[in-house]
Amino acid sequence: MPPRPFHHLPDGTFRNPKGAPKRSLGRLKHAGPFFLEMLKMGVRKVDIPEGHVVPRADAVRVLDEHVEAPGDFLTWLGHAAFLIRIGGLNVLTDPYLTTYAGPAGLGPRRFVKCGIPMSELPRIDLLIVSHNHYDHLDERALARLPNKSHMTVVVPLRLASFFHERGFPNVVELDWHQSHKIKGVTVTALPVVHWSRRTGLDTNRTLWAGFALESKDHKLFFGGDSGYASVFKEIGEQYGPFDTALLGIGAYEPRAMMKASHANPEEAVQMGLDLKARRVVGMHWGTVLLTVEPPFEPPERFLKAGAEKGFAPNDVWIMSIGETRRLKGWPSNE
């Protein structure tokens, strides 16, 4: 019998890869003020900068043009939800698309709507979910997704039953470093630094993951949720280089509490370098208030760090919610 992988614990739960920072709530001096500030933020109005959201009619029109044309593209729906065209497949990631990041109308509330109405999305061929937190696995959105029997769902270990129970017949569970091929696109689950919980009694009983999507023309890394650790250099050595890396840049303060769950913008840029990514795209920001940093600070720090680390300006993307960009040829790179 092969040895048990490091991230599989004897009690059936999972843990982060070697070298990852330890997760904790932090000392009371951090936790108390954090939860008090989050209560205040729950009723605070967010001032949304001009250009952060594409008007829906314009967003739908541009998406329709890309759907009808050949070529790969990326549409940001908000947070970690993207519509990706790669290798001819329509891929939907971490579909938090409705209002609340929590059960039964509880939890943090989005301050911007989903970039494209669900009714205007093209038929989804592949649904990828990185882990079971409510801001990535939105049960209300899943209930409204059409064509469940058509799409393939790829999830980390022990999440398949959640989807089977909700009418998705074609579900593939992957452990880290396992792959599944669908119509010329290879999906590989990869280690990231995070955790899982859906209720108060199931902490780390389902796995979390990032994913590599590889077609003959493009290799894309979707980071899900992750803190920074040396595992990204290992992924870059084994699976890189990547053409595009979608990386979380928000929900990082206070660092004592969030370091083992979410990268800050500078760490996200370093992830991109470690992954040998030509282009980095900031996500997991500008949609819902989960932590206490200013909501529009992440993109400024991300762009600055990208320039300082040597990325070309056109290869550090901060997208508007609802915006669609070509993955080749935007604006002039081939």
**CATH class descriptor name:** Alpha Beta
Tally of discrete structural domains: 1
- The succession of helices and strands, N to C, reads HHEEEEHEHEEEEEHEHHEHEE
Tell me about the biggest sheet?
Answer: 7 strands, mixed
CATH topology: Metallo-beta-lactamase, Chain A
Question: What's the arrangement of strands in the largest beta sheet?
Answer: 6-5-4-3-2-1-14
Residue stretches low in confidence (pLDDT < 50, at least 5 long) are: none
Instruction: Give the overall average pLDDT.
Output: 93
Task: Figure out the total of helices.
Answer: 8
Distance between the termini: 47 Å
Q: Which secondary-structure class do the elements indicate?
A: alpha/beta
* CATH architectural group: 4-Layer Sandwich
Number of strands: 14
What fraction of the residues are assigned to beta strands by DSSP? 15-25%
In short, what is this structure?
GO terms for molecular function: N-acylphosphatidylethanolamine-specific phospholipase D activity; zinc ion binding. The chain is an alpha/beta fold and 334 residues long.
